[in-house]
Description:
nine-stranded mixed beta sheet, alpha+beta, five-stranded mixed beta sheet, 41% helix
Amino acid sequence: MRTDIASQPLTIFRKDYIAPGFWVDTVEMGFDLDPIATHVATRMTMRRNHDSSEKNLVLFGETIKLLQLRMNGVNLKKSAYSIADGKLTILNAPDVVTLEIETVIAAGKNTSMSGLYVSNGNFFTQCEAEGFRKITYYPDRPDVMGTFTIMLRGDKKKYPVLLSNGNLIAEGDLGDGRHYATWEDPFKKPSYLFALVAGKLVCQEEKYKLKSGRKVLLQVWVEAGNLDKTQHAMDSLKNSIRWDEERFGLELDLDRFMIVATSDFNMGAMENKGLNIFNTKYVLANPSIATDVDYAGIESVVGHEYFHNWTGNRVTCRDWFQLSLKEGLTVFRDQEFSADLVGTETGRAVKRIEDVRVLRQVQFSEDAGPMAHPVRPDSFVEINNFYTVTIYEKGAEVVRMYYTLLGHDGFRKGMDLYFKRHDGQAVACDDFRAAMADSSGHDLAQFERWYSQAGTPRVKAETSYDADAKIYQITLSQTCPDTPGQSKKLPFHIPVAIGLLGADGKDLKLQLEGQTTTSNNTLVLELTAESQTFRFTGITQKPTPSILRNFSAPVVLEYAYTDEELGHLLANDSDPFNRWEAGQRLATRRLVKLTNAVQKGEELELDAMFIEALRATLNDTTLDPSFREVVLTLPSEAMIAEEFAVVDPQSIHTARQFVRASLAQHLKSDLLSAYENNLTPGKYSPDAVSAAKRGLKNVALAYLLAWPDDATFMLAKTQFDEAQNMTDRLAALSGLSNFSGSAKNTKAAAQSLQKFYKDFKNEALVIDKWFMLQASAYTCDVAKVRELMKHSAFTLSNPNRARSLIFNFCNANPARFHAADGSGYALWAELVIALNKLNPQVAARLARSLDRWKKYPQNLQAHMKAALQKVAETKKLSKDVLEVVSKALA
Length: 890
Ligand code: 0A1
Ligand code: ZN
C-alpha cells in the first residue's frame, strides 16, 4: 500500500471538504493491554447526517487487525463492506447504527509514537492528528465528536496505574492478576483528543480551589525517581488555571486534570482532554538538571496545553486545514501568559523579542522555502507535516494583530463572542475572524488574506518632513513574494504601530491629518492598500520614526535608517522592542559587510560607533539585565544568512566570530563588571529577576571566552566546577567547549565535558544537553558527529536524543553541516532514511534541514540535490518524508 502512495502521493484539498456522512454520539471502549497484542473492543452509536452528500458510512483504520465488525447486533459479512487505502466503507447503512468493532494492536512494535505505543514498558497514546485510526476503525476526523467511556484492563503488577480522559467512575480487581479502571469523559470530543496511559507511574497531586470555589484534583504523573522534579510543572499548571480565569474568564470544566510525562514523544506535549501527555523535557525540572530556559519552557508548554482545554477542545477544528484556529490562538495565549507572569514592561518586551526571534529565524525561512503555506493551508499530503512554525507562530501573530487592532478589551469581547457562539462545536478560522469583526464592528474582510496567502510581506517606508507646514509624512508600501502555487498577492490589512522621537529622545505627540485620535506615544496605522501615505500634523522638528513598534505585524520592514538614527533609537526609544531592533539593525549591517569582506579576503574591522553603542547599553544599569542580554546577543548565523541571496555559511561564521571577538576585546573590563555585578549567590530560584541576572552574566562570560586568556578560561572553569545550578554549569561548559586557546586549556575543557557526562549519566534530559552542546560547537565536524553516534548513550529511536545530536548539528551548526565536500548532507541522507523506518514524523522533520538548498552556492547545491534525490529514491518512503523531499526538489 505504502508503495502505491509513494509513487503517487495523495494530495488532500481544503476545497474538497465534505461533512461527515454519520455523526457519533457515544463511544465505549475496552482495552486488554498487552504489548504484543492489545485487544480493543469498541461500541459506538451513530446516526446519519442528512445534510451530508456522503451517503456511506466511512471509517478510517491503519496498521490494525480487524477481528470483528457487527452492525446493529449482526456480524457484517465481508461483502457488506470494503477496506481499501485505509478506509472501511459500509454501503447502505441504516440511519441509526450501533457498530461493534474488535481490533488488535501490536503496540510494542510501534516505533512511530503515533497511535498506541510502549515507552519504558508503559503504554501511551498519541492520537493527533490521525493516530486514533491506529487503535480502531473510526470516523477519525475532528468534526465528529462523541462522548467516550473507556475501560482499561491489565496486569496489576506491570500496569498498576490506568488512566484515560475525564473522571474515574469505577475500578477494581479482575481476580486473575489483572485489574480494571473505567473512565468517563462528560464532554463530547473528537477522537484526536482521546488518550490512555498505563504502567508504573507515580504522581504529585494537589487539591486546588478554583475562583468559583469548586475544588479540583491536579496530578503530575512521572516514572518513579522523578518525583523530585514535578513541582515546577505543578506550579505552572496552577498559574495557568488562575490566569485563564482572570484574563479570559475561562474555568477548568473537569474535576480532575492530569499531566503525564514520557521520555518518548514526537512533539512537546498533547492536550488530550483532562489527560495531557508531555515530553519529559517539558515537565521535569529541578535546579540541578534544568536551566532557566527549561523552566520557562515548561511554564509555557504547561500553559499551552492547559489553554487548549478551551481553545482547541471545547471549541475545536472542523478539519485539519483549520489547525491554526486552535494552535495560533493557543500560542498567542501562552505567549501572553508567560509575559503576564513576568509582570514588568521590560519583561514583556523581552518575551516578545524572544518570540519574534523564533518567528524570523524559522518561520520567515519556512515562508521563503518550498514548504511555504498559508496559515490556513489549501492542501497537504501528510497532515503531520503541517504542525509548522507557520501554523503555530505566524498563526499567533495573526491573532496578535486582532489584539493590536481591537485593543485589550475589544479582543476580550471577541473571545467572549467566539465561545458564546461556538462552545461545543468544530469550526473554521473564518468563524474566529467573524467573532472578532462582529463584536467590534471593525471591518476585517481584507484581514482574511492573512489566512489565505503565504509568504512574508515586505513593508517599505519612506518619509519626508516639511518644516514650514510642520508636517511629517510617511508612505508605506507593501509587497509579498510569490510562494509555491501562489503568485500576485493582494494587499494585506497590516497594523503598523508607529511613534516619532524628538531630538531629546522623547515621543512626540501624534495627530494624523484629518483625524481626531491623538496619542502621546504610539498610533496604530492601518495599511490596507498597496501604498498609503499618512501625514502627522504639528510636528515641530524632524523626528526619528520608530516603525512597527512591538513588532505589530509579521512583516519585513525596510527603511533607510542612518546609523545615527539607529543609535538614537537604541539609546532612547520608549518602545523596548524597537530599541532592541535598532541594535539588531546596526549589528546586521556590520555582519553583512564583514561577511562580504571575508569572502573578498579583505581586512576585517569593527567600527567604534557600534562598539560604543553596545558598551553604553551594557553599562546602563537602569536597564533590566534581561534587556541588556538580548541587545548584546548578535543575530544568529541563520538570521544573517537570510540577508543574502546566496549563502556562504563559513564566511558568515567567520564574520560573526570576528565581531564577537572584537567586542570582547574592546569591552573586556565592562564585560567583567557585568559578570561580577550579576552573580546570584544563594539558593537557586527560576524567578525572572534572578534568571535575567544569570542570563546577562552568562552572555558576558560567553563574550569573554571569544577573546580568551588564561584568566577568562579560569573564570569559566571555576564557574563550571562550582556551579550550584544547571544554568550556570551548562553556560560555563558551553563556553569551554567552544574554547579555542592553549592546548592545556583545551584539554581541561575536554575533561570538564567528560566529568559532566559522568555526573549526569542517569539524567536523560541532561545527556541530551551534553550531545546538543557538542553538536552545535564549531569544533564538531561530521566525523565527530559520527563518533558521537557510536557513543553508548546515543540512539536514533528516542526522538529527544536524535534531536539533541542530529538535528542540532544539521540546523544549529551551519558552518560545519555545510562542509564543502558534502559530507554533512551525506550524513543527513543516511539518517533521514534510517529514521524513516523508525519514525516517519521525526524523519520528515529532519528532512526539512535541506529545504533552502537553492540558496547555496552551486557546488553545495549539487551535493544537496544528490542527497535529496537519494532520499527521494528510497524504497518504502513514508508519505511524511516523501512530501518534504519532493516539494524541495520540485
Ligand atoms: N497539539 C499539540 C502538539 C502535537 C501535535 C501533533 C502531534 O502528533 C502529530 C503531537 C502533539 C500542541 O499543540 O501542543
Ligand atoms: Zn497546541
